[in-house]
Amino acid sequence: MIAAGVALEKILACPRCHGRLERRPEALACGTPGCGFRGVIADGIVNALPAAAGPSFFDATYPVMMHSSSGPSRLVFYSQQAAALRERLAGARLVLDVGCGPRLEYERPPASLVIGLDLSYESLRHNTDVDVRLYGSATSLPLPAGSMDAIVCFYSLHHLVGQTVHENEALLRA
Predict the structure, then answer these.
(1) Residue 153 pLDDT
(2) Which residues, in sequence order, are CB contacts of 47 under 8 Å at separation 6+?
(3) Between β-strands 45-47 and 94-98, what pairing exists: parallel, antiparallel or unpaired?
(4) For domain 43-171, which architecture applies?
(5) Which pLDDT score, from 0 to 100, does residue 158 have?
């Protein structure tokens, strides 16, 4: 579900050209002439992938991810990270969680808007902790440069290399 009162076209950008998006019934469309991007909105999830993209590797492994992230060992892995993150997120208004998974493993900052981006549609379907759910890739982020106060990568940091790291850095406010 997309949180009430969130104007997607004001916080998101085209994942292809980073142009302005326009809200259409059940979709977002790029307003840049010649771009042609159209992101369908279904199940409260914005699809920011190319139209021809099918299920991802992460959708096939969703049952394994859920099983391994629901046991007592979860606390061992994430409790220290969550405590450290709490201080760093203090005061953040716009937070992007790249690879958000099926739930947030940290306490969200008060009065913040959390955008969850994941390549697992199933994880997004089950994630009720984020305000905006984006089915997309960290290699073509559907957000304007300088728009985020913080970026979290609990589940995805080990996947980020090269240009993907630069894309994330460009989103952070100075």
Answers:
(1) 84
(2) 39, 40, 41, 135, 136
(3) unpaired
(4) 3-Layer(aba) Sandwich (3.40)
(5) 47
